[in-house]
Amino acid sequence: MRRKLLPCCAAVCLALTALAPGSATAKPPRESLARPASYERATPSTESVRFARRTQLVGDQLEQTLAVTLELTTTVRQGHEVVNQGRMSINRRQRRLVTTTEVTGGMPLAVLVRYLEATKTTATEPGAGTTKPQPVQGKVYRCRREGDALHVTDEAGQLPPLDEYEIVAANMESLGRVNPLAEYLAGRTVSIGEKLALPHEVAEKLLGLGDELGRVTRFELTLVEVRKFHGTPCAVFQASV
Asked: Where are the domains of the chain?
């Protein structure tokens, strides 16, 4: 059985400072035990942007949109003879609004997560898929990090059903921890069109896919453009996973 995660788009909203072509690059971030990202430098004339940290505040809101497609191909053999072949695709789409409710030392420790959209589409033939809502669609959850433990409850403070808990816990695994992508980008200058190849651990922590769609082994980001969302400059990346 072969698993394939198709390319997707991601908008990363961090504090940005635009640099003119040819400007000096930023000082490297503090030394980290994490493996450094690799880069493919764009031409010197390409517009560049510099990523910087911004302290999160209570009431900050982040809308996240995630769409991932998994293709499964199965082949059954008896000896050297192929007796059956099958193909199935699974598409998972989520749009969630995350509101910060508690911040300690500049780190958000508690959030309110509202799933505006959460669907799963399964298809055995192109254009003939069946779409069903995920159990979290239209619901609200409270998440809080206490040490190594992540606590997830529904909006009323009660423990949600297991299937809902597992989805939310996987999505919010990075809560109360340093954002791995922000760690790589903070203090760096990236050019439009530049490609970054990051370790697979970054993708798994950032995307919160869980085990359902398999393990991410390749994660590449290409900076496409910088645009404003609700007045905030955001970097738009093309992601290949």
From this structure: 2-240
Distances (CA, A) of 4 to 1, 60, 126, 222: 10, 35, 16, 20
- Note the pTM of the prediction, 2 decimals: 0.65
**In whole angstroms, what is the distance from residue 191 CA to residue 13 CA?**
16
Contact 106, 178 (CB under 8 A): no
Cβ atoms within 10 Å, residue 218 = 12
Between residues 163 and 200, the one the model is more confident about: 163
pLDDT digits (tens, 9 = 90+) for 111-144: 999 999 999 999 887 767 789 999 999 999 999 9
- What is the average pLDDT across 87-101? 92
150 versus 6: the higher-pLDDT residue is: 150
Q: How far apart are CA 39 and CA 120, in angstroms?
A: 34
- The stretch 14-37 carries a mean pLDDT of 38
Within 10 Å of residue 76's Cβ, how many Cβ atoms? 10
CB of 182 closer than 8 Å to CB of 213 = no
CA distances from 52 to 102, 105, 143, 184, 221 (A): 22, 17, 26, 11, 18
Q: What are phi and psi of 181, to 5 degrees?
A: -70, -40
* pLDDT higher than threshold 80 for residue 190: yes
SS3 string, 177-209, reads CCCHHHHHHCCCEEECCCEEEECHHHHHHHHCC
